[in-house]
Amino acid sequence: MTGIEKPDTQVFLGRLLAARRAHTLPFQLRELAEEFAHGVLQLLFPHFARQARAEPAAVAEEEARLRVLLRKGLVARDAEPGDLVDRFFAGLPKVYDALLSDADALYQGDPAARSRDEVILAYPGFFAIALYRIAHLLHEQQVALFPRMLTEFAHRETGVDIHPGARIGARFAIDHGTGIVIGETAVLGDGVKLYQGVTLGAASVRKELSQTKRHPTIGNGVVIYANATILGGDTVVGHDSIIGGNVWLTHSVPPKSIITHTETVRRQRPSDDGLEFHL
User: Fold this and answer.
1) Residues 249 and 235: beta-carbon distance below 8 Å
2) CB 154 within 8 Å of CB 128
3) Which of 1, 51, 186, 228 is least enclosed by beta carbons within 10 angstroms?
4) In what order do the strands lie in the sheet with 161-162?
5) Which segments of the chain have a pLDDT < 50?
6) Are β-strands 161-162 and 181-182 bridged in parallel, bridged antiparallel, or unpaired?
7) pLDDT tens digits for 134-166?
8) Cα 35 from Cα 111, distance rounded (Å)
9) In the 8-state DSSP scheme, what is residue 270?
10) What CA–CA distances, in Å, run from 85 to 70, 80, 132, 164, 235?
11) What is the C-alpha to C-alpha distance for residues 58 and 109, in angstroms, rounded to an integer?
């Protein structure tokens, strides 16, 4: 005898069946999210299309299919499905314009990029940003779970983890991308650029802080280099600052600062510094 109690398989089977009967989430939610993500990208960008169809009927057909998928992906506590679906598609033009701006920022900021088409097709940073912006549109409408499934799909594909609740401005650029984490209450201004391994996180993970601002605010034009960690809801990085690689930052810094992991004294960034590196 090993002393290990033998489980009652009938009792265990009963527990599993009871859990299945009580399950209220949409069936195959993960697969729905992935299909919806690919479908929206295909609707917005021909780069993701499986076949060349440019006639109006093709666009209408794809939108109708996506409306069905989105309805299936909503959970019981979401608002009236028809209203949510209509509001999502009404918001897509703004998402599309934002993504064109993001693609241009990536292209302009990376000497290795040969075209905007290359950025859209091949850059994991663009893929992650695109699914974040799609998910954020749903998050703003208080959709409960589906937005998180979309960004987690991007996370699995790219290694970039952006919570759909984060607020991110225009011309956002993620270079390389793997290992980036952006928390739920982070706020990023326009023209922010992040390299791989950056964490914009919370200084505390206590559950009772879930309804507070826990993640940092990043000003316009900030560049954050590889493996830098910036924590705390009260931490503000002033506009046009450079945060060097491997920096651990838990306090605010003024605009045009240069912070490195070996320096404790902030230096003012010149207006024509030429200090942005390409990794």
Assistant:
1) yes
2) yes
3) 1
4) 161-162, 181-182, 199-201, 229-231, 248-249
5) 1, 265
6) parallel
7) 999 999 999 989 999 999 999 999 999 999 999
8) 33
9) P
10) 7, 9, 17, 17, 36
11) 34
What are the E-state strand segments in the chain?
161-162, 167-168, 173-174, 181-182, 187-188, 193-194, 199-201, 217-218, 223-224, 229-231, 236-237, 242-243, 248-249, 257-259, 267-268
């960004």: which residue's tokens?
A: 151
How many Å is the maximal CA-CA distance in the chain?
77
Structure tokens at 259: 């912070």
One DSSP character per residue, 210-239 reads TTS--S-EE-TT-EE-TT-EEE-TT-EE-T
| pLDDT for the residue 212 | 85
- Tally of CB atoms within 10 A around 270: 10
CA distance 16 to 34: 27
Q: Which two tokens stand for residue 178?
A: 């793997």
Crossing angle between the packed helical segments 81-109 and 124-139, to the nearest 10 degrees: 150
pLDDT value at residue 3? 60
Residue 155 β-bridge partners: none
CB of 187 closer than 8 Å to CB of 167 = yes
What is the predicted pLDDT for the residue at 261? 82
Distance from the Cα of residue 254 to its chain's centroid? 26
112 Cβ contact partners less than 8 Å away, ≥ 6 residues apart:
278
111 contacts 130 by C-beta, under 8 angstroms: no
